[in-house]
Design goal:
Distance between the termini: 23 Å
Order of helices and strands: HHHHHHHHHHHHHHHHHHH
Number of strands: 0
Largest sheet: none
Number of helices: 19
Helix content: 55-70%
Number of domains: 2
Shape: globular
Strand content: under 5%
Length: 361
Amino acid sequence: MGHETKNHIDLNVLKGALIFIVILDHNEYVRNHFEYIFRPLNYHVLGFLFLPFLANSTRTDWPFYRDRLIRYLIPFAAFYTAASAINLLILSGGPDGSSIVETYLLGGITGSAANVKASSGFYAFWFLPALCGTILVLSLYRALPKGIRPLVFAIFIGLHLFVGLLPNEISRMIPLGLPIVAYLFVLGSMARFLIDQLPPRHFGLARWASLGLFVLSYAICVSLNSHTEVGTLSVGSILDPEFLLHDLLGLSGFFTFYLFSGILAKVPLVEQLGRLSLIVYLAHPLLIKALDMALLSRLSVGEAGSLLHIAVAVGSVAFTVATSFVVALVIQKSNWLHDLITPRDWASWLPVQWTQPATGR
């Protein structure tokens, strides 16, 4: 996936801004202080899942699918396994062996938020299987004959409107986040269509229009105390009065960050944070948990809104961003760690390299 679009938007800046919102959303001290703001939050996750729609790839060959699976599922497996080992063997007091294996395998195979959390202790790891599923489904859709695509897209519209009614017992057992893909496919396609239709001369107008819609839809959602959660498919359906409002919030939020990325690029380290966003995303839940266990859980931070609570929230966010960034840098700079945990494709994965004749780096 390229890092710049036809409107010269640096996608690393966009990813850097979105990953910062993700870290805020996953910090319980921030959420406790601003819970009403985070309840309808969906544009940060949707923003990342829209990125495959901005790419122009039409490949449907096996090497393409294999490389995407390696690119996203190896990092998922590495961090999911590490978190599960800590959670199941240490924090949970060590349940019986068969229960550990069953819980771990169920989360690893399905990749759904509920099953992943049961093993690892975190919801966050659901994202990479869903991103992988999005890329695969989009690739298959683009490979369809043009005459068939409208019919398939109509099916996706129906799925978008009603997939939220799918019982949790069923949705959590479907791998690669496919129910989530069914929900967001239409929104991602709309995002790509609108970007393609945006003339450069109207860029400034679109920027402020998206900001206006974003602020308006967000304000209404907050005033209604509405809630949506993409990762757990708690998105409702067209039968819910706030469903289309959440659609508007997700699209306008994405476009606001997308169109303002030129300004956001001036914020220090945003572009670098976006460049390392994959590892930052995977590492930050573990680091938040480590900080909480080592220090914050021992403190009396007071009620939400107190100066001490605010100070702890700000400090914990700063710590999480900084340490996640450092961890990502260490992995990136270490050839063997990078190729083991975050390979870009099949050929660059360390176990595959070991089976090939030495060629030097």
